[in-house]
Amino acid sequence: MADTQTLTPRDAFEMLMAGNQRFVAGSPEHPNQDAARRTEVVPAQNPFAVLFGCSDSRLAAEIIFDRGLGDLFVVRTAGHVAGSEVLGSIEYGVGVLGAPLVVVLGHDACGAVAATRSAVADGAAAGGYVRDVIERVTPSVLAARAAGHTEDADFIAEHIRHTVDLLLDRSRVLAQAVEAGRAAVVGLSYRLADGTARLVTARGLEVAADAVS
Predict the structure, then answer these.
(1) Reaction catalysed (predicted)?
(2) pTM higher than 0.90, yes or no?
(3) Strands (E), the chain
C-alpha cells in the first residue's frame, strides 16, 4: 500500500470503494491481514482513512471495505453521534496520523435513527444514556421531516449529511485540512442486504454531480 503521505484524498477514496466492490462481488482479497503485515505495522500506523461509523455489528469496517491491519483508523458510536471524544479521535487520525480521507458511514435500518423518529413522533423518552444518543440524532430527524421526507433512506441520508457538516463545523483541524486539500470528508450509506456503500455527500473531493444524491 502506498504511504499516506503520497495519497491524495481521491486516491484514498478510490482505494476504499474498490475494496467495497470486491466485498460486494464476493471476491475479497483480504489485503494486509497476514503475519508480515502484523510485523510491518508494529513501529507505527499510517492509515489511509479515518472511518467514523455506526456501531451496528453488521458494519465491520475492515470486512465491508476489504482492508486489513493499519489501513483504517476506526471510530464508532451508535448512530454515528459525535461528541468531543469522537472529534478528538478524528482530529488525531487526520492531524497526527495524516490520513487524507474521513468517512462517515451510516446504513439502512439504523436503530438509532428509527428510535429517534419514534421519539419525535410520540414523545416517548428513552432511559439512561440512550437518551443522549437520541437527542443527538434528533436535529437530523427534524430536518428530514421539515423537508417532507417519509422514507427511511431519506432520513438516513439526512443524518449522514448532518454528521459530515457537524464534523467540519466543530473541528477547526478537519476544516483546515479540507480547505488546504490535504483531506476530504465523505458520507456513505451502507445497504445491509447487498453490502454496497453509496456516496451521499462529499466535501473536499471532486465527484460527478450525479454521483451524490
Answers:
(1) hydrogencarbonate + H(+) = CO2 + H2O
(2) yes
(3) 49-54, 72-77, 101-107, 184-190, 197-203
